[in-house]
């Protein structure tokens, strides 16, 4: 990294701020994954890859899951016998994961899938694994 590459980019990963989450819930703190740079996403992808079964392809939930999906695809097998990996950065209620699945498979042939998130604020659905799970 160049000396001044991050000048002016001092976003904090954990922020104490009131906001309305994607689920519509009022929340008092935020995990701002825009604070992470490419090298950090690559490291997180490696951490997930070391803990997950082989997967055909990583598909990111827009917008939060796109950066991690891009990095995880470096580890994708492209083997049709392996499941798709659906990924997101932060899971709050799991609603985005369910909605994405419903929309993604609406006009596609169903196929096996697994889910991963970097951070889970609550217990994720059974098919989703969190790298970092809040208590």
Short account of what is shown:
The chain is 21% helix and 29% strand.
Describe the model.
This protein has 135 residues and is of the alpha/beta class. The protein has helices spanning 38-49, 66-72, 95-104, and strands spanning 14-20, 26-31, 57-60, 84-91, 113-120, 128-133. Helix 1 (38-49) crosses helix 2. It is globular.
List keywords for this structure.
single chain; 135 residues; alpha/beta; two-stranded antiparallel sheet
- Name the overall outline: globular
Spell out the helices and strands N to C.
EEHEHEHEE
**DSSP E strands, number:** 6
Q: Please give the alpha-carbon distance between the first and last residues.
A: 34 Å
Spatial arrangement of strands, main beta sheet: 3-4-5-6
Radius of gyration, in Å, reads 15 Å
Structural class: alpha/beta
Strand content: 25-35%
Kindly state the mean pLDDT as a whole number? 91
Helicity, as a percent range:
10-25%
Low-pLDDT residue intervals, each spanning 5 or more residues: none
Helix and strand arrangement:
Blueprint: E1 14-20, E2 26-31, H1 38-49, E3 57-60, H2 66-72, E4 84-91, H3 95-104, E5 113-120, E6 128-133
Parallel strand pairs: 3-4, 4-5, 5-6
Antiparallel strand pairs: 1-2
């Amino acid at each position: 990294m160049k000396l001044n590459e991050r000048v002016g980019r001092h976003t904090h990963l954990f922020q104490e701020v009131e906001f309305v989450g994607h689920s519509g819930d009022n929340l008092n703190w935020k995990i701002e994954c825009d604070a992470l740079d490419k090298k950090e996403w690559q490291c997180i992808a490696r951490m997930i890859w070391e803990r997950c079964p082989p997967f055909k392809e990583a598909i990111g939930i827009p917008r939060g899951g796109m950066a991690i999906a891009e990095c995880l695809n470096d580890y994708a097998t492209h083997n049709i016998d392996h499941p798709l990996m659906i990924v997101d950065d932060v899971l709050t209620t799991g609603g985005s994961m369910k909605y994405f699945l419903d929309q993604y498979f609406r006009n596609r042939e169903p196929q096996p899938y697994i889910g991963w998130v970097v951070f889970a604020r609550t217990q994720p659905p059974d098919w989703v694994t969190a790298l970092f799970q809040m208590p």
